[in-house]
Write a sequence for this structure.
């Protein structure tokens, strides 16, 4: 279901961070922790299209997700993870994911997820249900969104 | 910025809840608490369009939100509230809101927000930036999204 491409995204964001910080408009969720454990979770939001003919199957899968997939999500320090569905235009559906990352090496944790056998099997089921949004970076599946407001 | 119409939405959802529960596909975030304080926050996700020519002003407003507005959000038991921006199609922008509700009377808390003078002034700034999605219910501003997956 998730994020083979997030490490690429993160790398680019890390390179851009000094620039966007200077300009005062950096995505707030990209705060980088240098400690072993983030003192505060880093928030992520992402979006992807869902094929209308796959809605039923996608919902069925996610109503009873495979235990091994959930265990890998936890091992990769992803928490409070929810996915929402919306019909944004008539017949046009999108999934919106929100999660919090509590680890200290996002790239490493996402790599571990992408190499987990059960997760790979799960993605073989979910990938054909989804399609990247029109503005997605070449090769991306989910597109990360910029946080413009936060209130604890 | 928020939710004059959420009470309407909530009422409809409360009416529909028995039906969708029977069908096993009710939005999970609509769990109703009968206690004084929810033992677990109820999660909400919502979406609205953002006019391209208003992006800069919207971001500027939300980079320094008015203290009175934030205080009312807290008084209305809304926490961990973030808004994200994405260009879903070339030149077509959307805002995605995620928040957690910790109170025991969502309708009452949203009404209090809608009646707060500072919040009313804030919405006079933010409303002209936004437009409801094509599939929004008549009169709705933000459209609530159905949660299809959750992992703590």
């Amino acid at each position: 279901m998730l994020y083979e491409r997030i490490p690429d995204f993160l790398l680019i964001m890390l390179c851009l961070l000094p620039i966007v910080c200077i300009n005062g408009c950096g995505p707030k969720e990209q705060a980088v922790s240098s400690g072993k454990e983030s003192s505060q979770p880093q928030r992520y939001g992402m979006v992807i299209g869902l094929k209308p003919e796959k809605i039923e199957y996608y919902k069925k899968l996610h109503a009873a997700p495979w235990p091994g997939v959930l265990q890998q999500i936890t091992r990769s320090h992803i928490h409070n993870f929810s996915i929402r569905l919306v019909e944004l235009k008539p017949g046009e559906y999108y999934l919106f994911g929100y999660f919090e990352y509590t680890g200290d090496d996002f790239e490493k944790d996402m790599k571990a997820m992408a190499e987990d056998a059960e997760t790979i099997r799960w993605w073989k089921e979910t990938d054909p249900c989804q399609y990247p949004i029109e503005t997605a970076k070449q090769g991306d599946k989910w597109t990360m969104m910029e946080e413009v407001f936060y209130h604890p």
The interface with chain B takes residues 24-25, 29, 43, 45, 47, 58-59, 62-63, 65, 70, 73-74, 78-90, 94-96, 98, 133-135, 143, 145-152 of chain A (CB under 8 Å).
